[in-house]
């Protein structure tokens, strides 16, 4: 690296060729990105250790395509609407209506569904 130092009234400064400066700036940006990624990974590991569900990529892809989360998660848990109905105390028709979008689903009903599916309620509630 071709660095030259120069004293100024504010202190000593380093002078280097633009190409070398840009390479250093790119490495610094990479380090910031790596640190950000490490924070995200650490948070995800902490949530998983606390019992948060780890969803397969196929399920996440279905969510992003706009599929109903109740249906996606029910199928992921390998449950029928009838089984979910029996476990939640909700009618099979009600669950069907929620899955098809004919009903939004009351908060209490969605809480019961989330409990049976063993997922956080916020996975079932659309923003």
Can you describe this structure?
There is one protein chain. The chain has 127 residues and is mainly α. Helix content is 60%, strand content 8%. It has helices at 18-49, 57-64, 69-76, 81-88, 92-100, 107-117; strands spanning 4-8, 11-15. Strands 1-2 form a two-stranded antiparallel ribbon. The chain is rod-shaped, with a radius of gyration of 26 Å. The mean pLDDT is 89.
Summarize the structure.
Helices cover 60% and strands 8% of the residues.
- Total strands: 2
| Coarse structural class | mainly alpha
Beta percentage is: 5-15%
Number of alpha- plus pi-helical segments: 6
Portion in helices? 55-70%
- C-alpha termini separation: 52 Å
Shape: rod-shaped
What strand order characterises the main sheet? 1-2
Tags for this model:
single chain; 127 residues; mainly alpha; two-stranded antiparallel sheet; 6 helices; 60% helix
List the helices and strands and how they pair.
Elements: E1 4-8, E2 11-15, H1 18-49, H2 57-64, H3 69-76, H4 81-88, H5 92-100, H6 107-117
Antiparallel strand pairs: 1-2
């Amino acid at each position: 690296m071709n660095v030259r130092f120069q004293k100024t009234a504010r202190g000593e400064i380093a002078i280097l060729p633009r190409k070398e400066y840009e390479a250093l700036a790119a490495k610094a940006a990479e380090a910031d990105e790596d640190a950000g990624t490490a924070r995200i990974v650490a948070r995800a590991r902490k949530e998983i250790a606390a019992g948060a569900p780890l969803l397969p990529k196929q399920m996440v892809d279905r969510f992003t395509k706009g599929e109903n989360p109740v249906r996606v998660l029910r199928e992921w848990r390998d449950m029928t609407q009838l089984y979910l109905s029996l476990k939640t105390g909700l009618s099979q028709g009600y669950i069907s209506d929620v899955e098809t979008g004919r009903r939004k689903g009351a908060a209490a009903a969605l809480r019961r569904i989330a409990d049976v599916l063993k997922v956080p309620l916020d996975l079932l509630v659309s923003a």
